[in-house]
Predict the structure.
Amino acid sequence: MIALSFVSVLMLLMYGPLAQWFISADRVLYDQLAGNRPAKALSNAYIVSIDPTRSTQDEVIAEYGRVIEKLSTAKVNRIVLANPPEIPAAAELPAWTALLASDIPVFVPKRHRFAQVSGKSGVVQLAVDSDGILRRSNLWHFNGGTMSPSLPLAIAFEESAMATAPRMSGSDDSVYFSSYAKIPRIEVAELLQQTSDEVLRGATVFVDNDREMVGSVEVIPSGQFVTHSEITAALLADIENNRMILAPSWIHAMEYLLPALLAIVAILFMPDRNRKEILVLTVAGVLTLILFEALLLFVLHARIDLGRPILMFVGVGALSVFLVADVKKVSVDAFKKGSDFLAAGRLEPAFAEFRRCNPSETVAAVMYKLSLAFEQQAKPERAEAVLEWMKRTHSTTGSRDDDTLTSRKLTGAPQRLGRYVIEKRIGRGAMGAVYLAKDPRINRAIALKAIPIEKEFEDEELKEARLRFYREAESAGRLTHPNIITVFDAGEEKGLAYIAMEYVPGIPLRSFTDPKKLLAPKRALELAAITAEALDYAHNQGVIHRDIKPANLLYNPKEGSLKISDFGVARMTDNNSTKTGIVLGTPMYMSPEQLGAENLTGLSDLFSLGVTLYELLVGEVPFRASNIAVLMTKITTEDPAPVSSRRAGIPPSVDAVLAKAMAKRPADRFSCGAEMAIALRNCARVS
């Protein structure tokens, strides 16, 4: 309704009493297009200008006589006096005016005294627009009770009575200027003394006393300053070359129809779209209108004014952008609120917030997790409602040959764990294998991490390991973040403990640690910043990853997204615990306190992230050794070489960030992941 009201008022203003304030939009657009329209010069034509500053009025008139006598002798095709000097009514006409009635046609303005002798005349009447630009000229004028042709039209009629018949109808009485293709000028002295009759024979010659530029009287859309003769020559060239710019009656009808159609399009298609779509639609509409006007002008030689419709369309687009909420921000805020509600066990408000998010794999993963939470609360009907919503709004994920994979026997792997159907193995980690599986309830692909817990542990150790496994699954399941792989479910069957996680197609960043396949420094810094922000979220939830390395960071180059995987080795932080012990991890990426079996904080993950970034930038980890003892010594005592000295294009600021991230003492590192992310992005801006 707001858009409809706005369009109605805007159209009323643009085409109503305030049209003169908006018509400049039409003129500006026309001038830009018409000024670049290639002009075709009048063939075999010349301009002879008499300098009035060096002679008296009588001498100028006498000079006209000598020039016309020379042209008549040379047998020119026609002579045009577009702006001859005025002769008072009481004065006698000069004797040479008898030449005006000779065999050579001489065209003069209708209201000049020369018209009484010549018999070849047309109306000269220039009407500029309010901004001082000459854009149109009438072909016919009401003169003394009769319709008289303009001077260019009268000249064209002398050659052919059907000069304008191919394109003009009875209602087309105006032509429009675009640009002027200059025709040669001949000085009077050169004409009288040096120019041969052969050069002039059959030519069209304009004679005036308006010097080029100095004697110009008007400005045309191309920005050229033109004299009376040049104006007449430009129009005559368009008429004789059938390049007249006209505005037929159907054009005028379209000028009123198009704004109405654009208003309908704007009202129907803009308000219910997001800002990006509105901008794309607005730009596409404006470019289409400009192209349409250009095609009419350059191909059909027809003028249509679309400046005001374009202005109206842009106005509606700007209003829609202002009124429409920032969908991305709304989606991000809704996801954050929904995640908080889900973590607090408030499932209904979480469902309401997640439904406000834009459909994505991350949202689908969290909604799936929500459905499982409803089941745990013995609310199967709400779980079904969540699954139905997912089916309507999210496409299923999986490989094209899912059915084939499902039916295929998997050597060395179970066919099913819990309710999940295993399709193929996609990886192997320190704690077991990872399979691509499917939840048959909603036909959704998941990643299933299976651990042979009964083979690895026995008796009391098995009980402790089982307890630890579920604690790790619980800790990872609390995390709901766009850059952390979501954990849905955990269970145990056939001696295998399993964790059902979000399946994310991506490439582990370890693929980009080869010195020949390194990422651009700016991209590596941005990915590290994203990881630092996600870790900051996890640390605030009381979860430490403990095994940050390139292999656990999944990157999707097509979308530019990154997700942290394998939070399964993380544990809930226990402030009452005095010793956590060394957990599973990769020694090359471990922090000094992790190697020393000290109490760990999130700052240990930041150290590992610094090591990971170092490797991504130079293709080699900062600490290398042939055995674990030497490696531990290097990690706890040595500082790595600055990356700026090992790879060109990396600013020294990156060295400072890495030195702080990999400080030996946790207190010397960044205080949190958010602080490290800010520092990394500052480095990316200058890299």
Q: What stands out?
A: The radius of gyration is 42 Å.
